[in-house]
């Protein structure tokens, strides 16, 4: 149903822009940052985490394709450790959501991860992303804790 293809340098440029836009929006929604600060944090985050782009060690970046078709329908970024993997980012283009392709993408990723001897996968889901949380729970992910945040020295402090 889906195909994970190693991301090329050209595809990474498009993914990087997508990541920055999506993560900046998440930072605005979840932490109350203004657009400029959120974009700066998102840009710095991906540039530090992936200094060699798709060739950064211990990271796998894939483009998601439906049924071996040419257009990219989403992206998946997984960081590998010795005994576990962490889904740093998973994004399906809006037109492809709700069709079972998110589930298929995650199950394909699990097969790839298991094939290299990893037996645990973790991820973070934004508190306001109930559809993603439901998908993750449906395929067996369990809540293991909560991320909490406090803004210091700001009028946005709650």
From TrEMBL:
Gene3D superfamilies xref list: 3.40.630.30
Residue ranges annotated for the N-acetyltransferase domain, each copy included: 18-158
Superkingdom assignment: Bacteria
A Pfam family recorded for this sequence: Acetyltransf_1
Molecular functions (GO terms): acyltransferase activity, transferring groups other than amino-acyl groups
UniProt KW keywords: Transferase
UniProt key word Transmembrane helix: no
Protein name as it appears in the record: GNAT family N-acetyltransferase
């Amino acid at each position: 149903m889906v195909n994970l293809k190693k991301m090329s340098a050209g595809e990474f440029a498009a993914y990087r822009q997508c990541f920055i836009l999506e993560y900046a929006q998440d930072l605005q929604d979840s932490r109350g940052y203004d657009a400029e600060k959120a974009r700066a944090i998102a840009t710095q985050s991906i540039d530090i985490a992936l200094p060699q782009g798709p060739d950064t060690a211990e990271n796998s970046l894939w483009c998601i394709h439906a049924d071996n078709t040419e257009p990219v329908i989403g992206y998946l970024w997984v960081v590998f450790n010795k005994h576990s993997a962490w889904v740093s980012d998973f994004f399906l283009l809006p037109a492809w959501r709700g069709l079972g392709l998110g589930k298929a993408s995650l199950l394909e990723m699990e097969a790839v991860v298991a094939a290299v001897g990893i037996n645990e996968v973790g991820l973070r889901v934004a508190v306001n992303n109930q559809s993603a949380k439901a998908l993750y729970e449906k395929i067996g992910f369990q809540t293991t804790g909560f991320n909490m945040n406090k803004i210091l020295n700001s009028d946005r402090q709650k």
